[in-house]
């Protein structure tokens, strides 16, 4: 194994210079503070902020009314302080949904208030169960210029009831997201807190030009599948200055599932993540996949801090996925109390059905990690490929560890896990600051 690593080091270095991209990744400041010429308050439509009255009709009526201003510069729906219980509602183009300080939108705890919609074509079925899926609490489709923002108001999915249905296997359809925007462009989600999503929290799918900035996303560490932000078959996405602590992946970049994702063929591309702090205990800080069949490329992540986290960065894929994950550049990652810093898992073997093509192998290439440092990392790298597939040009410039109680632990663990990996091209540490753990 040592010999393999030495030989491949040269290969990976060779390809590195041809694609590494440098430069600032700040989100372009499109105007989230945009003045909308028309504004209404949700109470004008009969909403009651007592945490008990169901306000779905009020939200729907307000938004229906505001639709007449879409071609007149757009409109703002103001949600004042209060607890506004609602079922799922649809957004429209040229809308700002504004949650004031102490405004809380609460998701209904009755599954009938979350209607069932078609599965995504790139998944072929619901992610959890065959058939449709419950529509997200806040939903938008075919939209342009949508802003969800405010003065740190809260959107709380009250997901515990869904987690219980999941655990007791009494769901009839796949659980809903808290916010889903589909086939939309010019989306800003900022300055808010998102709590207790039933399933993934913020899900832009088939979207372009999405900015998620300065949001807090929280769910209990043991809540099932409560991913933070999952850009899915979306491009030109910027995620900046977020704090996320949930039960699963904090950010997961996806692009469809097996033969359905391959056929739909819409990649996730040009995504930047900058200034992310978070933790979890079952999931990853930043994950790629496992659904990546439409391809994932040009992803930059920097200035990341994860503490008390199970896996920091994880690439999940499987036989049958097809697609690719390439040109991924991750730098300036600080870790504290992390089980595994970098993980590749080539046998993440959930499939939508038995019709996937086992010969559809993912291409994993040109992945760099630079300046990954940490305290108390149990395993620096755990890398498992796919028999007969190559993961090419994986370059880890610096992974260093401070204050490690047992500096050989990561090394040993890796060698144990590496046995049985076929044909994985791997470059380990080029520069060793103190102890290099791969
Ligand atoms: C996406 O939205 C555009 C504009 O609203 C529409 O023309 C197109 O058909 C939509 N595509 C899908 C797949 O929904
Ligand atoms: C979005 O566009 C698709 C494709 O044109 C259409 O089938 C669908 O009804 C539209 N949905 C909405 C909510 O506009
Ligand atoms: C982040 O959002 C809070 C309100 O949620 C606001 O007070 C603060 O100014 C925002 N910070 C930035 C950098 O936008
Ligand atoms: C926003 O509210 C959340 C939850 O109450 C809190 O954790 C967070 O610190 C607040 N953010 C700001 C910028 O005030
Ligand atoms: C599933 O369907 C059954 C039968 O219609 C219904 O009683 C139950 O409430 C549904 N479960 C959920 C979580 O919606
Ligand atoms: C967040 O809030 C701050 C303070 O009000 C404001 O300056 C900033 O533009 C907001 N950012 C976004 C992206 O909405
Ligand atoms: C972690 O997530 C997996 C997959 O969802 C689940 O099987 C397992 O029970 C979870 N573990 C904990 C401790 O929540
Ligand atoms: C990448 O996305 C950003 C928005 O986040 C956009 O400003 C930029 O032009 C895009 N770059 C390319 C090469 O498409
Ligand atoms: C690295 O990221 C941290 C946040 O985790 C930030 O405070 C620091 O300024 C970044 N360093 C550089 C050189 O950008
Ligand atoms: C780390 O997580 C464990 C359980 O997941 C918790 O008991 C502990 O308090 C956490 N420590 C810190 C520093 O957050
Ligand atoms: C992949 O995972 C599946 C299900 O966990 C298991 O049955 C199979 O043996 C694994 N294959 C390899 C090559 O590890």
From TrEMBL:
Example GO molecular function: polygalacturonase activity
GO biological process, one term: carbohydrate metabolic process
Hydrolase as UniProt keyword: yes
Keyword annotations: Glycosidase, Hydrolase, Signal
Entry-linked SMART domains: PbH1
Keyword Kinase appears in the UniProt entry: no
InterPro entries in the cross-refs: GH28_Enzymes, Glyco_hydro_28, PbH1, Pectin_lyas_fold, Pectin_lyase_fold/virulence
Family matches, as Pfam families: Glyco_hydro_28
Secretion signal, residue range per the UniProt entry: 1-20
Similarity section: Belongs to the glycosyl hydrolase 28 family.
Protein name listed in UniProt: Glycoside hydrolase, family 28
Organism: Corchorus capsularis (Jute)
């Amino acid at each position: 194994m040592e010999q393999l690593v030495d030989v491949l080091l040269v290969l990976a270095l060779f390809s590195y210079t041809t694609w590494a991209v440098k430069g600032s990744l700040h989100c372009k400041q499109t105007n989230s503070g945009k003045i909308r010429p028309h504004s209404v308050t949700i109470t004008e439509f009969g909403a009651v902020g007592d945490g008990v009255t169901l306000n779905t009709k009020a939200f729907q009526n307000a938004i229906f009314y505001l639709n007449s201003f879409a071609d007149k510069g757009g409109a703002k729906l103001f949600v004042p302080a209060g607890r506004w219980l609602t079922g799922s509602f649809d957004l429209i183009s040229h809308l700002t949904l504004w949650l004031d300080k102490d405004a809380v939108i609460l998701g209904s705890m009755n599954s009938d208030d979350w209607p069932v919609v078609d599965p995504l074509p790139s998944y072929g079925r619901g992610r959890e169960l065959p058939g449709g899926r419950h529509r997200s609490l806040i939903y938008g489709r075919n939209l342009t210029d949508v802003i969800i923002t405010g003065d740190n108001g809260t959107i709380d999915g009250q997901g515990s009831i869904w987690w219980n249905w999941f655990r007791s296997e009494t769901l009839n359809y796949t659980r809903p997201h808290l916010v889903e925007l589909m086939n939309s462009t010019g989306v800003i989600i900022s300055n808010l807190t998102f709590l207790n999503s039933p399933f993934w929290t913020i899900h832009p799918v088939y979207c372009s030009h999405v900015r998620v900035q300065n949001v807090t996303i929280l769910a209990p560490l043991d809540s099932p599948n409560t991913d933070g932000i999952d850009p899915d078959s979306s491009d030109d996405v910027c995620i900046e200055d977020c704090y996320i602590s949930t039960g699963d992946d904090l950010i997961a970049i996806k692009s469809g599932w097996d033969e359905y994702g391959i056929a739909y063929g819409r990649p996730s591309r040009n995504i930047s993540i900058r200034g992310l702090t978070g933790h979890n205990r079952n999931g990853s800080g930043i994950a790629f996949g496992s659904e990546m069949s439409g391809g994932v490329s040009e992803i930059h992540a920097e200035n990341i801090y994860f503490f008390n986290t199970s896996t920091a960065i994880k690439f999940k894929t499987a036989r049958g996925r097809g697609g690719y994950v390439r040109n991924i550049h991750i730098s300036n990652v600080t870790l504290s109390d992390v089980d595994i810093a970098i993980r590749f898992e080539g046998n993440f073997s959930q499939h939508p059905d038995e019709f996937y093509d086992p010969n559809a192998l993912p291409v994993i290439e040109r992945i760099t990690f630079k300046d990954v440092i940490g305290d108390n990392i149990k395993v620096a790298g755990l890398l498992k490929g796919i028999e007969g597939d190559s993961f090419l040009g994986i370059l880890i410039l610096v992974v260093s560890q401070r204050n490690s109680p047992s500096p050989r632990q990561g090394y040993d663990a890796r060698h144990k896990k590496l046995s049985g990996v076929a044909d994985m091209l791997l470059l380990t540490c080029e520069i060793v600051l103190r102890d290099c753990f791969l």
